[in-house]
Amino acid sequence: MLTTIKSKFLLALLGTLIPSILLCLFLLNSLHTSKNNVGTLYNRDFIGSALASSIDGQLTRVDINILRMIAIGSPELIAQWKQENEERFTQVAASIAELKHLLSQEKEHTAKLQAITASYALMQAGMQRQVELIEAGDIPGGAEVNRTQVKDNADATFAGLATLREELGNSAKRRYQQQQAANTRAMMLSAIALGLITLAGVSIALLLGNAISRSIRRAVTAVEHLSDGVLTVDVKVTGKDETAQLAKAVYRIRDRLQGVIAAQLEMARQHDAGLSLIHI
User: Fold this and answer.
1) pLDDT in tens, 67-119
2) CB-CB contact of 130 with 150 (8 Å)
3) Quick one: pLDDT at residue 54?
4) Other C-beta atoms lying within 10 Å of the C-beta of residue 131
5) How many CB atoms within 10 Å of residue 141?
6) In terms of Cα–Cα distance, which of 98, 142, 145 is closest to 117?
7) Which letter does DSSP use for residue 228 in this model?
8) Is residue 83 helix, strand or coil?
């Protein structure tokens, strides 16, 4: 139970300070959670885009090695480049598997990745067949395989990789912008809420101040009436704070003055009664 003016103002202060602290903690937690969630999605899109670029680069090097085989034709170099190509095919398969796992929850990207995987499988088979013919010295046969089995599938694969890379890049950018917008919105809402809390605290303080001021004014008015000889003053007593104690003190002064005056009146009455008896 509030018994002092100090405790009332302290409660008003705490009523403003505690919600403000809780609001700040909530804001920080919300921003941290949102940042982590969006950061996870952003990293996923960024990594996916990097993997698509890596696959594109590996397949481009495979294509370059096949062109070298056709241009140079050295069995030793052909064998070396063939081995490099197989290693790159292995790396591409691992990157595609990682992409599938990374984008397993994204239907739009999953469909695109499935199309890339299908065209890549045909492209890889065509390239391997082309290398076999080049190794055997059948350059025209290798060129025919490139025309019928490799080219269209390679175009589809590279085009799909470019589209996927662009979509993932745009998605990462969009998520970053959404995070910035969410942060700005959260800051604005928090500023508004903090302003309302502060306004409420100031309003409570003003109400308390006005209530205390009214009580003091009533006590001052009562004391002025007492000084003018008006002993019927009435000061409302509410609560147990210092203003209530002041009002009770005014009551005690009034009661004592009334007692003193009553005693003086009684003495005067008795004095007058004694004089009357003497005269008789």
Assistant:
1) 999 888 788 999 999 999 999 999 999 999 998 888 887 777 888 888 999 99
2) yes
3) 92
4) 21
5) 15
6) 98
7) T
8) helix
Residue 16 corresponds to which tokens in the numbers above? 């403003």
Q: Buried b / exposed e across 33-70, counting CB within 10 Å, b at 16+? A: eeeeebeebbebbbbbbebbbbbbebbeebbebbeebe
Over its C-alpha atoms, the chain yields an Rg (Å, rounded) of 46
What is the model's pTM? 0.58
Apex 146 CA angle, 145 and 150, nearest 5: 105
DSSP class of residue 145 equals H
Place of tokens 């006005």: 210
Local structure of 2: helix, strand or coil: coil
DSSP characters over 165-224: HHHHHHHHHHHHHHHHHHHHHHHHHHHHHHHHHHHHHHHHHHHHHHHHHHHHHHHHHHHH
Question: Residue 187 and residue 171: Cα distance in Å, rounded?
Answer: 24
Tokens representing 56? 């594109």
CA atoms lying within 13 Å on the CB side of residue 45 = 18
Does an H or E element contain 91, and which? Answer: helix 75-102
State the residue for tokens 């302290």.
10
Structure tokens at 208: 């308390």
Q: In this structure, are residues 237 and 248 in contact, taking their beta carbons and an 8 Å threshold? A: yes
Q: For residue 151, give every residue at least 6 positions away whose Cβ sits within 8 Å of its Cβ, in sequence order, or none.
A: none
